[in-house]
Amino acid sequence: MPKLFWEDFVEGSVAEYGPRLVTREEIVAFAAEFDPQPMHLDEDAARSTLLGGLAASGWHTCVLVNRILVDTLIENAHALGAPGVDEVKWLKPVRPGDRLTVRAEVLNKRASRSRPEIGFVNFQLEVRNQAGEPVMNVRDVNALDIDGDFLKKENATLAILVLGGTKKRLAGNYSRENIEKIGRDELARWNGGGDKLTQRLNACVAKAKPAQ
Fold first, then answer.
1. What are the DSSP calls for 66-97, one per residue?
2. What percent of the chain has pLDDT over 90?
3. Model's pTM, two decimal places?
4. Which of 8, 64, 69, 165 has the fewest Cβ atoms within 10 Å of its own Cβ atom?
5. In whole angstroms, what is the distance from residue 53 CA to residue 46 CA?
């Protein structure tokens, strides 16, 4: 199965990954190393805490979710890493024996202004246990490669949209014969016609031109 590029992620699309079993042993081992609080280390001590029993550290849950995504979504995409996480909310304790599933929704996406070969995808992640109860919500952003053949697979207008970083006057369907003029005008308006992007535009224009 081909790996996914930035343009393969569609706003509003949803996918599920997992499940992943959470064991008592790994809860205690993670807590002992990174978050040694009573509610994560010992059943008896945990009963008198706010969690009312042994539960995984919230940071442990984050790591487990990351592993689920690395083994599925990230492994099967041209992923470049993540510049950050906008929000993490722990909603319910994760207990020994829980099986976690991640529901990932594409909120929005954008091409990079400074590096047109890269795009960013914002995800809303909902983590649920085996009973379907939400245990954690995460809103994060991931960087992905934009396919070098994007221009071939989509129309020329969208390719210029990616290169130029602007939607101005590009909603219509322009003929491929006009792509070079439109692209150069938009590129010059955006960054003064920088050499690097101009060279990239030239390469994409060549791909877009119909065969003679």
1. HHHHIIIIITTBTEEEEEEEEEEEE-SPPPTT
2. 63
3. 0.71
4. 8
5. 5
